[in-house]
Amino acid sequence: MYTYGHNSYYQLGDGTTTQRTSPTQVGDKEDWNIISVGTFHVLAIKTDGTLWAWGRNQFGEIGDGTTVSVQIPTQIGTDTDWAKVSGGYGHSLAIKTNGTLWAWGWNSNGQLGNGTTSTSLVPIQIGTDTDWANISGGFRHSIGIKTDGTLWTWGQNSNGQLGDGTTSQKTSPIQIGSDTNWSFLETGSSHNVALKTDGTLWGWGLNDAYQLGSGTITPITAPIQIGSDSDWEKIRTFKFHSVGIKTNGTLWAWGRNSNSQLGDGNTTNLNVPTQIGVDTWTDVDIGENHTIAIKSDGTLWGWGWNTTGAVGKGNTSSNSLQNQIGTDTDWYKVHSGEWFSTALKIAPTYTLSGKITDSGIGISNINVANGITTVTTNSSGEYTFSNMYAHTFTITPSNANYSFNPENIEVVLSSNTSGINFEATQETDLPNGGDGNFDGIPDYLQNSVSTIKDANDISYITISSEDGYNLYDVSTSIPNDELFYYPFGLTEFKVNANNATIKIYFHNFSNMLDYVYRKIFSDNVYREFDLANISIETINNTTVGVATLTLTDGGPGDYDGIVNGVIFDPGGPALPITANIPIWDWWYILLLIPTIIIAYKKFI
Prior knowledge:
It contains 2 helices and 50 strands. A 6-stranded mixed β-sheet has the order 41-38-39-43-47-46. The longest helix has 12 residues, at 592-603. The N and C termini lie far apart (82 Å).
């Protein structure tokens, strides 16, 4: 991004108030995507969807919560879903990717559209509609187009700039007419020009310098077609003149020409759109009294009033004809404020690639996201992001059946980058003897898993030995009534290991109460640990509670195993562990006594 011209409000973004007469790069980033220039401030969206602003902040138009001018591009908030921006005189407008409308800054005439005239120093959502497609901010009014092609306006209306046939201001968006074929719009100081999908040109509002191109200086309070041509492609307007490019690339201009801003070599106003030269152009924008444009060969040009260097030719002398700015041929977008200009060059693009493997074997059909787009690995596990602009990406693979090491990788992309690799571990559903119920146990544990089921063959607890030791069931079935209606539903399993890490997976986790009890046969003491210390995991889109028991043998009788602060001895013979599932229903406490008797007899 390059800026030049007037800089009293830091609108050039270089951290100074020094006027520049030639395009000067702002920073070293190559990830600028969308730029909009207000009268003395600039709004921008980067390729990662973040919002940035700098320049004058007298009315809070920057959106950072202050009224202090901002010297360099500064991120506004942390959202990454901004899609379009437009800067007005002292207010700003934006649309997010979800189609919502946002505004901030000066609101003296309701130009924010929130039904009030109160200024906002931060972006606020305007209404609840999610179908906004385009917006433009003027001096004290705003206009927009929705996805259905309807036209909406709000704010000051003293010159009929809202287009509703009146001169009464509106503090909320109102629909103008019933047409559904509006495609593009541009606000001036107190007027507007717009295009329809059929390529026709329309205008309304203040017209004291022929800026509408209607042939007269009569103000117009409702949209009227300008001429009869149907091949308009782009239009731009500011205070007193307008320009446009047709589908054949020809440049047209009309309105005030006191500083040769129309580019025809004269200072005579033009009351209707008039072709300027015979060259072909790809982009154009205007300030108060100057014009900047890009030819189809990628060269940058400027003409008109140049006292502040806004034309960009290296001095402050004005030009009555187009003047080429430098010799570069990679310009593609221009924007202009009142007395300054910005221009974007075609940023270089890079590729970013890597591979996802499981034990060295590539895995196909793994989705890999970089925050902007998603690609899928091929049959060899390879993925490639193409045509990516330089900025910092976080690369993240995803698949419900795999975990990835690492989980994601941050890449600062400034050249073609390869070798961003991930190792995947497959995690699939174990069928539990063919019943198909989820148990959340990875494949590599399937030979050391014991599942406790109720009488309906539904899995409620799964115990796994992560170190590969075998588990021996004492009970693999819990009666349905015991599971749900008794405070104690007891089952046992044994670990045939002197050193092992045991994981207990609790399904239907919301049905668990405060504790899980373990009983160590050697001393007939119940051991417990708090469910609050059990981790919650999501496996294959199912939430389970996971308790981990670590057994380390230091010899029989030494009580060296520790679970949540409880000491026990895992040495010697196979260690029996009892899991207890408490139930919510307190009134079943009356059934507790027979259960305790049964348990007492069993363990004694």
